[in-house]
Design goal:
Layout lengths: L7 H4 L4 E4 L4 E3 L2 E2 L3 E4 L2 E3 L2 E9 L4 E3 L2 E8 L2 E3 L2 E8 L4 E3 L2 E8 L4 E3 L2 E3 L18
Parallel strand pairs: 1-4, 2-5, 3-6, 4-6, 5-7, 6-8, 7-9, 8-10, 9-11, 10-12, 11-13, 12-14
């Protein structure tokens, strides 16, 4: 069961930009709408609402979106409120998200920070045994 139901992908009236199976796109996409990748996108995706990577889709770059659903390949870091990796997904990079779901078979090669997306404060204390 996916976070985005099959029936709601295109019938909701929301506009999607599509990189179709025959397409190869190179460059940065900065958008406030949604993106579906069925082909290959080489570059970063910034500020998207939804990013859906289909089973044959591939993104080589960092992804920043509200929701990321992947059943293909992402080679780059992902920052989102919700990340869903389906059984056929491969993600090579770090994930920073409020929530994450990984179906059995989904693979991650990287660090995951789930929960608060704020950086932890750096320690300001001097190491033990030293005084200034």
């Amino acid at each position: 069961m996916g976070f985005l139901k099959k029936d709601s992908d295109f019938s909701s009236g929301e506009h999607y930009s599509v990189v179709s199976a025959e397409c190869y796109f190179q460059g940065t996409l900065s958008m406030q709408g949604s993106l579906r990748v069925e082909g290959t996108l080489e570059g970063n995706v910034d500020n998207a609402r939804h990013v859906i990577v289909g089973p044959e889709g591939k993104i080589k770059g960092d992804v920043s979106a509200k929701i990321v659903v992947c059943s293909g390949v992402i080679e780059g870091n992902v920052c989102a409120e919700m990340v869903e990796l389906l059984a056929s997904a491969r993600l090579q990079g770090d994930i920073r998200a409020h929530k994450m779901m990984v179906e059995e078979g989904g693979r991650i090669d990287g660090r995951c920070v789930i929960g608060a997306t704020e950086e932890e404060p750096a320690e300001t204390a001097a190491p033990e045994g030293t005084e200034e």
